[in-house]
Write a structure and sequence with these properties.
Elements lengths: L5 E7 L3 H12 L5 E6 L5 H8 L4 E5 L5 H14 L4 E4 L11 H10 L4 E5 L8 H4 L4 H18 L11 E4 L15 H11 L4 E5 L16 H58 L4 H21 L3 E6 L10 E5 L19 H4 L5 E5 L1 H4 L5 H6 L3 E2 L8 H9 L3 E4 L17 H9 L2 E8 L1 H4 L10 E7 L14 H18 L1
Parallel strand pairs: 1-2, 1-4, 2-3, 5-7, 8-14, 9-12, 9-13, 10-11, 10-12
Antiparallel strand pairs: 4-6, 5-6, 13-14
């Protein structure tokens, strides 16, 4: 819970005999607990008032079903500023001791729905599961099969109530039913919107039937699951698959448009630059043109909303070293024509900037002419190889942009920062302007071929003078400092 605001949600309906032990177990790991009293008639309200007066409670006047209880809890959690909610059943079958597993999974994959797996070979035991209802086992296998059909994903346990949800990504997902099968529907819609789903092994304990309060009705609930799966399968063919096809086509249109613009644009650029001696003002106008094209392309991305934040009013009039994190997603990863490292969102920030790019980007036939005319620089094994050129650009008023990580992060975590950017800042006496990228890892997963709906935020952080670190600070120490700063900034988003 150090990096994300996480709460634990406990929906309950007539589980007074086990609720206290569950709440006490959860409280050993976090005080952030929301209990939903879903119309209980067994004295749960009195229990909560007397034994847990400091816990946040959402009360339904009547039993509305688990789906409605979760929806109420999620709304409450978002109002309280939580980023994630872990749901755990109130009947005592789930072990609060497994909460650290979910917290670790949230840290590693904050944009994923984390689902507990009761049937993991290392966790499953005959003692713990001997009292598991046979109909429940069949319903789970049945649900697993149809989930795979509807989403193309496989999960070993789609029926467990021990899960973690990224609340930000649930705001636009529908809750099509109020009962316990609502969680299954929520995962299906999440998969259709490219929200990752991961499974982690959990412990489970089923008390004897005479000691357990169960609301599972084999005949009625299996019928409800069957109806839901029929509905979702129908939507798979009339909504999910056509939607995916349309998004692929929309993506192809954007790529084709980019190809046409770059191909013919480069011819025009080359003719223009070779026809006369280009002035400094003309070069700056050319940089401005590239910036406007980048912003146009970003607006054309289907389902993607991008926001540029500049809270400190940075105008880039004074040259600097610009650095940025490099999350695994990039706007053009879906195309082999457009490389993943071409930072369109960075180009869109300011025209007074050149970017140090990878050499294979430098030699890309689609836009090699454009980036060379824009005076971008290739990465070299020896950072000093570009010093003379960088000195000239800085003297002309341009900032130099680098990705200290060197490559896209394989996760949302910030990787080790290389020293090159900070060596250049010291060498030329330049400030550092950090740029924070948030959301690119979700909008386009590294292995995805289409964009996911979502928000991209590009934030220009406060300009930092190296004078505050003293003359003895090394590039390595600066790299560590700024890496830690990025980690804290990402944690706060």
């Amino acid at each position: 819970m150090n990096n994300w605001r996480v709460c634990v949600v406990i929906p309950t309906y007539n589980n007074a005999s086990t609720l206290a032990s569950v709440v006490n177990g959860v409280a050993q790991y976090t005080p952030n607990i929301i209990v939903v009293n879903d119309g209980c008639t067994d004295g749960t309200d009195k229990l909560l008032a007397e034994s847990f007066p400091h816990i946040d409670v959402v009360t339904h006047n009547r039993n509305r079903g688990k789906g409605a209880a979760l929806l109420s809890a999620f709304k409450k959690a978002q109002q309280m500023g939580y980023t994630h909610a872990i749901t755990i059943d109130a009947d005592g079958q789930h072990a609060p001791a497994d909460l650290p597993l979910f917290l670790k999974a949230i840290q590693q994959a904050p944009n994923a729905i984390v689902v507990g797996n009761r049937f993991d070979a290392d966790k499953f035991s005959a003692d713990n599961n001997r009292n598991m209802n046979g109909q429940s086992k069949f319903a789970n296998r049945f649900s697993n099969f149809w989930f795979a059909v509807q989403t193309g994903r496989r999960l070993p346990d789609t029926q467990t109530g021990f899960r973690a949800y990224p609340l930000r990504l649930l705001r636009w997902l529908p809750m099509v039913t109020n009962r316990y099968e609502s969680e299954l529907a929520l995962m299906v819609f999440a998969a259709w919107h490219n929200v990752p789903t991961i499974s982690i092994p959990i412990n489970v304990h089923y008390p004897p039937r005479e000691e357990r309060v169960s609301h599972f009705r084999p005949t009625a609930d299996f019928a409800r699951i069957s109806v839901l799966n029929t509905f979702l399968t129908f939507l798979t063919f009339v909504y999910a698959i056509p939607r995916k096809i349309l998004r692929v086509l929309a993506t192809a249109v954007v790529v084709a448009l980019l190809f046409v613009l770059m191909f013919f644009g480069q011819i025009a650029m080359l003719v223009y630059f070779l026809s006369h001696r280009v002035s400094e003002a003309e070069r700056l106008r050319f940089h401005g043109l590239i910036q406007r094209i980048a912003r146009l392309l970003l607006r054309l991305l289907p389902g993607v909303r991008i926001r540029f934040d500049n809270p400190h009013g940075e105008d880039f009039n004074n040259p600097s070293i610009i650095i940025s994190n490099h999350q695994r997603g990039s706007f053009f990863s879906y195309s082999s024509v457009i490389p993943t490292s071409f930072p369109v969102y960075i180009i869109a920030i300011t025209p007074r900037m050149v970017i140090v790019t990878k050499r294979w980007v430098w030699y890309n036939p689609l836009y090699a002419v454009a980036i060379r005319l824009a005076e971008f620089l290739p990465v070299t094994r020896n950072i000093e190889d570009n010093q003379e050129r960088i000195a000239e650009l800085v003297n002309r008023g341009y900032s130099v942009m680098l990705f200290p990580e060197g490559t896209r992060s394989a996760s949302l975590k910030v990787q080790r920062f290389h020293q090159g950017a900070f060596y250049l800042a010291q060498r030329f006496g330049l400030d550092i302007v950090p740029v924070l990228l948030y959301g690119t890892g979700h909008v386009l997963n590294k292995r995805a071929r289409t964009l996911s709906s979502g928000d991209i935020v590009v934030t220009i952080l406060r300009r930092t003078s190296l004078a505050q670190f003293g003359e003895e600070v090394t590039p390595r120490e600066l790299a560590k400092h700024f890496r830690h700063m990025y980690e804290k900034e990402l944690e706060a988003n």
